[in-house]
Every structure is written in C-alpha cells, then in structure tokens.
Design goal:
There is one protein chain. By secondary structure, the protein is α/β, with parallel strands linked by helices. Helix content is 37%, strand content 20%. Strands 14-15-16-13-12-17-18 form a seven-stranded mixed beta sheet, sandwiched between helices. A six-stranded mixed beta sheet has the order 9-8-7-10-11-19, with helices on both faces. Strand 7, helix 5 and strand 8 form a beta-alpha-beta unit. The chain starts with 19 loop residues before the first strand and ends with a strand.
Length: 492
C-alpha cells in the first residue's frame, strides 16, 4: 500500500514550537538533543522535537514547585481558575480543525476521528472540570460537642502526567484539567511518538492566562525524561496511562519518595455475545470495539466470546462488517482506519498475527498487506481461539480479534475473568437479569451492556487487577488530585 498523504489546502498544518515549555517560556534542552516526530501514514518526518532529559525535568519540577508554593494558582479564587479552564476549552474548540490535523499527522488516526472524537473530548475535559473547581468542598463532622471538627480538601501539589500515544490530547486533557481545577501544578510528559498536540496545549494554556509554571510540557523518552519525573523529589503524584510493565517500573522508581500514583494500564477486554442478543448491533459494536482507532485502545474488545448456537450466523455478519473497516489515507474523510502509530507497533502486531497462526487459531480475515509505505494493518480475525492462547491473553494493541466459542453462562464468565487484566467488558443479551448477573461477576472496572466503548468525563473509568488502580472521571478523579486535611477546634 502506498499513500501520498496531502494536506488539504484549506487546512495546512500549523506546527507549534518544538522546544520545551517550562515556567511559561519555550526553552532549549540542556543536551541540545532532538528526536523526530514521524507521520505513520507516509513514514516522513513532520518535525524535530527537543528531547527532554533529567536536567530539563529538574527545571520543570522546580518551576512547578515554585508556582505551587508561591504562585497565584493554588491561592486564586476557584471561580477564577474555572474561567481560565473554560477559556482553554474554548480555544481548543475554536482550533478543532488545526488540532485535528496535527493529531492525525502525528498519530495516524483518521482525521474524521480527530475532528469528531479526540479534540472535542479534550475541549470537554477542560469545560467539565472547570465546573468542579468551586465544588471541591470539605465537611463538618459532629464527632464531639467539645470540638468543632472539619475537613479541608486541598491540592496534592506538583503532578507528573505521563500520557500515551493512542489518544494524545484527549488523555493529556483528562489528566491536566482536573489537576489544574484542584489547584495543582503539572509537568506533562507526552509520549514521544505524539508530542505535538501537547506542545499546542502549552501555547493555548498561556493564551488563556494560565500563570507561568503551572503547566510545563517536556517531551522525551520514558527511560530518561519519564523516569526522572517519577524519581524527582519535588513531584507529589504520578498519573500514568500506558502498559503494565512501565507501570511496574514507575512503582519501583516512585518508592523512594512514596509518591501517590494513579494507573490505567491497558486490558484484554472480553466482549460476550449471548444467543438472545441483537446480532446485527452486536456485530457492529464488535467491529467498532476492536477496529476503532486501529485497535490502539486500552479497553478494546479484543476477546470476542460468541455463544456456540449462533456462532455461524454471527460470524457471517461479523466478517461482512469487518471488511468495511479497510485502512486508508487518514486525511480522507471516508477513511475509518489509519496506520498504526509507529514501525515498532506495526512490527509488534505482525508478530502477534504469526503467533496466533502458530498456536493453531484459524485466521479467517488477514489484515496484512503488501507494504510499501506506512504502517498499515487491516482488520484481522482469528477463529477457533482458546482462552489460554497468547493472542487471547496478551494485549496486542492492534486490529486483531480473537473469537472464542462458549456454551455455558457460568463458564464464559469464568473464562472472561481468566485474565490478569481487568479493565472493561461487554455483554450482549436481551435478558436484563442475565446482564446484571454477568455485570456483578465480571472483575473489571467498566461493563457495557448492549453497547461498547461509551465514555464521558462525568463517569469514572479505570481497572481491576493488572489494569491499574485509581479512577479518572467525575468526582472520583479528585481522590488522586487532592488530599484531605482535618482540623479540630477546641470549644470548651
């Protein structure tokens, strides 16, 4: 497949500055090192970005600490903080076309998705959490009439936000916005594959009036910039979205300073189709659950459990719908799938397809293409998969679906839980009692019933087991970004 990706004349890409954003200024790195941002559809370099390292993280941490301890942000009226966050939301919305193009060129996701999903979700995060700024209240506690006892909910301090490459601006916003709403200061370390919209967010935040040092953006690599951020004694908490192996390293590196940690570490989510389901709708969502965003989704429905009695008609529907998800030029408005984010991820997914074949699963739809340019893999479906197979247990993070047959209600729920992940699951049935019974048994953070992949910033999201801990969304996100102080006043 060869694509000549051309940017439409009406939407020429506007790159943000490519230095580090520290203490309200664009600054060079101490090392002078840079790295390439690559368009995964064409394998061409979009820009060279400053590569932050330990000394740069140190500067950002000191700037964030100064802004927290003596700057105006934590002491500002909550309503004033809210107005600045609302301004950020407005500016993101106004620049949807520009930011969408930047996101698509950097990550490979279809432009349609960037315009309709990613960038609006980023704007909504700031709008939604702006509303929380003046609602983070304490409580009075009638513990003893001899005392007046009350609590204060205070910001945690300096937050390190380490974000992934699959939803770059969206996930960065759902960390940065609540952190700022609570009065914290932030150091954002975006994924090295997709740092451009994080730098654009720095520009937007300054234009909106965010004080210097409150948001710092330091692109770089995990073992250098990321590890330095985790170890730094001036950083009070780390919010990380990524793979569990990196999460384990973060926990080790954070131990010395006993940082607070919030993790979302991926999954191998079960999507269960019972015989009494609406098969057309279930097949549509089964495709959407694994092929949307090229399968680069933490809660992708990558294990598809199908009741044996409807397997043949369902599989026919699934195959028909899957063939409409062919990858193409991400700048084309008709494209539903773009390339994978990088050559590394492309090679990883190809290896897993080979693993599935060697394990004895039946490849009924092969997404591998005769490749010339770009990291493209189309919809790939394995049948005759058993739950212990690697393709049913390990997170592939690509458009690869493992279909598993079942006959028994209790058995399928047991198999769905036989994963060290526990992020999400889907249930398809017209029997509401069956649906609620299954939802209680499944050991996951989110259960979708007769739908898949519904999200809203007002609703908590997070995982069980190796999928992490902590919740992002709604009031629950502030369990991480704030801490409780108790005050006793003697009255007698």
């Amino acid at each position: 497949m060869h694509l000549k990706t051309e940017v439409p004349e009406k939407a020429k890409v506007k790159l943000p500055p490519t230095d580090l954003w520290i203490d309200g200024k664009w600054v060079k790195t101490d090392s002078g090192r840079t790295f390439n941002s690559v368009n995964p559809a064409t394998e061409e370099v979009i820009a060279q970005l400053a590569e932050g390292n330990e000394s740069d993280i140190d500067k950002a941490a000191k700037a964030a600490r100064k802004a927290f301890e003596s700057g105006p942000w934590p002491r500002m009226k909550a309503g004033e903080r809210a107005r600045i966050l609302q301004k950020i939301a407005q500016l993101i919305q106004e620049r949807t076309e520009e930011l969408s193009l930047l996101e698509t060129l950097d990550s490979g996701k279809p432009l349609q998705n960037s315009q309709v999903i990613d960038i609006p979700a980023a704007s909504h995060a700031f709008e939604y959490y702006a509303g929380w700024a003046d609602k983070l209240v304490g409580e009075t506690i009638p513990a003893d009439p001899a005392y007046f006892s009350y609590t204060l909910r205070e910001p945690l301090g300096v937050i390190g936000a380490i974000t992934p490459w699959n939803f770059p601006l969206c996930i960065a916003s759902q960390k940065v916005a609540p952190a700022l709403a609570a009065g914290n200061t932030v150091i954002l370390k975006p994924a090295e594959q997709t740092s451009l919209t994080a730098l654009a967010l720095a520009q937007i935040s300054a234009e909106a009036g965010l004080p210097d040092g409150v948001l710092n953006v330091v692109p770089g690599f995990g073992p250098t910039a990321g590890a330095a951020l985790v170890r730094h004694p001036e950083v009070d908490g780390i919010s990380f979205t990524g793979e569990y192996l990196t999460g384990q390293e973060i926990m080790k590196n954070a131990a010395a300073t006993l940082k607070r940690i919030s993790f979302e570490l991926g999954g191998k989510s079960a999507n269960i189709i019972f015989a009494d389901a609406d098969l057309d709708r279930a097949a549509d969502f089964a495709c959407d659950g694994i092929f949307f965003n090229q399968g680069e989704v933490c809660c992708a429905g990558s294990r598809l459990f199908v009741e044996e009695k409807i397997k043949k008609p369902f599989t026919e529907k699934l195959m028909e719908k899957a063939r409409s998800w062919q990858p193409g030029d991400p700048l084309n408005s008709e494209t539903k799938m773009g390339p994978l984010v990088s050559e590394e991820q492309f090679e990883k997914v190809l290896r897993y397809i080979e693993v599935g074949e060697k394990e004895g699963a039946k490849l009924i739809l092969d997404g591998r293409k005769q490749r010339q340019k770009g990291y493209f893999i189309g919809p790939t479906i394995f049948d005759r998969v058993t739950n212990p197979m690697r393709i049913a247990q390990e997170e592939i993070f690509g458009p690869v679906l493992a279909q598993i047959s079942f006959e028994d209600f209790d058995r399928v729920l047991s198999e769905a839980n036989q994963s060290f992940y526990g992020l999400a699951a889907g249930i398809w049935t017209r029997d509401i009692r069956k649906a609620h019974r299954a939802a209680r048994v499944l050991k996951v953070g989110t259960v979708w019933i007769n739908c898949y992949g519904a999200f809203n910033h007002a609703v908590p999201f997070g995982g069980y087991k190796m999928s992490g801990f902590g919740r992002e969304g709604g009031s629950h996100t502030f369990d991480f970004y704030t801490q409780i102080k108790t005050v006793w006043v003697g009255l007698e």
